[in-house]
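Sequence in, structure out. First:
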Amino acid sequence: MNLLHATLPAEVAVIGAGSWGTALAALLAAKLPRVTLWCLEAEVAEGINRSQRNPLYVSEFSLPANLRAETDLHHVVANHRILVLVVPTPFVRRILASLVTVAHPDTLFVFASKGVEIETLTLISEIFAELFGAAGMQRACFLSGPSFAREVLQGLPTAVVIAGQNGSVVQQMQRLFQAPHFRTYGSEDVIGVELGGALKNVIALAAGVSDGLGFGNSARAALLTRGLAEMVRLGVCMGAQAETFSGLSGMGDLLLTATSPLSRNYTVGWRLGQGESLESIQQGAREVAEGVKTTVSVRRLAVQKGVEMPIATAVYEILYENRSPHAVVKALMERELKAE
């Protein structure tokens, strides 16, 4: 199979019209003759096609006129050879399963979602391999790194990493996404890039809680440092390369997500630290903070694999065991002394 076939169409479809999906679609539309954005909500598709704006997400930004929206998923998939999937992790398996018999055998997939499936504790790459076979992984890439949708739409400098098993496909996807304000790096460490993007959301929740409690800069710095150590421990146990977590999808994404109010995960943590309940925070939220569900997966993975992750455990206790943030922090600080 020639994955870089000369007749591969320039058109690309982005599956998922939330903030990040919309930003990536706009980025690609600035380079290509036409980009299709699949929308779950008909009102989003209508808004984009009528006024070049997404009415529900990042609505303050005007989108390129050559970005067109559709709601027929199978039609979109059957007529495009490059698919960028940007859907919440809990829906990835269901969507991919519906595409197995629809997608062309040469279709290239780029995944820009971040998370671990709760029911099976599997990564998105593992779900894809289950459904499309190990050979299908030669056609898949995974995009991660420190990036806010609004800043990409503003044209602010951003750098990400694209990982995949097939170096030629990774390079092609690097060229596809590369733009004057959007720099792409390549990697072969699929597991490390995926886990970095997922695990940092849990640590970002912890950092938000710390700031919400008013614990200051020193506490946040300690949380990020020790949180990164937890990410590396679990990652290496699962087959990732330790050095990947020093890069964009690890430390880079962690620094961004755990320090900015633009981060949904940080903001949820901050509100928890301020005394709000998770239920009240989630009511009316249009977009999810993926770390809330990822915390469940990470906690189960840590127990299953015998990996010590006290910060992730503390976040789990705050979210799902109704433990007081103050009590959890006290327990963390009073743990048995050990070498770094």
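Second:
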Amino acid sequence: MSRLFRRQLFSIWDSLQEAHQVLGELQAKGQKGEMAELLADCQDGAIAIGNQIEAVYGEGTKSVQALEAYCETLYHIAEGLDNEDACRENRSLADRQLAEAKAHMEKEIPDRMEVVFLPYKASMWDSLESIYLAAREDPACDAYCVPIPYYDKNADGSFGELHDEQGEYPKNIEVTDWRTYRLEDRKPDIIFIHNPYDDWNLVTSVEPRFYSKKLRNYTDKLVYVPYFVLDEIEEDNKAAIENMKHFCFLPGTVYAHKVIVQSEGMKKIYIDEYIKAAEEQGAKVDREQLEEKFEGLGSPKFDKVQNTTKEDLEIPEDWMKVIRKPDGSWKKIILYNTSINSFLAHEDKMLRKMKNVFAIFKEHREDVALLWRPHPLLENTLRSMRGGLLDEYEEIVRQYKEEGWGIFDDTADMNRSVTLSDAYYGDGSSMVWLYQKAGKLAMIQDVDIIDEE
């Protein structure tokens, strides 16, 4: 239970205790009607406390048992208002029962912060993982990873297939089912998200109950951490800023109480572009408030890639069949990444480029292992926005998998591919920046260059 709800419950208890003093005064004055009304209010308060405890901790707590006994005593008081001695005796019993309920509440509802993480795609969990692990190790904190479902979007904007990836998280992450963790009951102290789009995304949508504009109502601190990292941008690089400014003013950045970005330099760009976008919509914003809202603290994605070693990896045997040479040594492993933006910008050229890349690496497969990792949402994006490319793309994927000379990685663990590979080749993306953080070589492909031989 969050500290917020804990404070609320004990505040109700304080009100009940104050009501007991008033009951004594009303009895002394013979105001039985007012006593009956106040007793009903006390029952409502005790029931409210008990219902909230059961919503979070389930049935059978000693706190609720004590509150039930207290409510029964209140009923006897109300039924016997004409008998002053019995009324006074039952009031004394109610005092003791209320104190007993508080003692149980102190034990059963610890004064700890509750922090919940709401990732939607398992492949993007690395953008929150190091924060979660730190919270989990904090003895004054209860941390929950609650993966939330998301929908594919059809070309007309309607919801398509529902995805629930809670079974795809690392073994060391304890996952809580989103159907049992009720935000409206628990009111966590902090909620972390990495999806900022709400209903703005054309390709996917998290289940609408988890839109940031709704999550804000369940916590005093909604924190958005981007699921991506970008190359650092100089203030005067207007072209680069133009390409990324759409990230700066989204539902997640608007409704979050805090936004964590990868650097102080990126923080300034976010604030500048946020102000411009808000003013274009006729909204007034306070720069000083945005300076408090945005924090350039870094990205957990950097933590993940820098702290993962090859010794930490579980490498599938079908991958090892591609990686091992006949003498047992390893080939050089090249991570090939194809991005959404390149397909949207170059369309058929990207398909032609991919075929050429695969032909070259297939020819050199005795010395080099190709590890192809397309963007996790690439196929969904083509289905929603470039339907004419989908069949040919799916045929390329099918053929690549069937031939078996390379590795196809569509798992949730991007960092395994980054750590395992020796060099990067492919489209410009956030993975390039991670590669640089890992101190490895990254090469960007040019879709217009085709090796005809």
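Remark: The chain has a mean pLDDT of 94.
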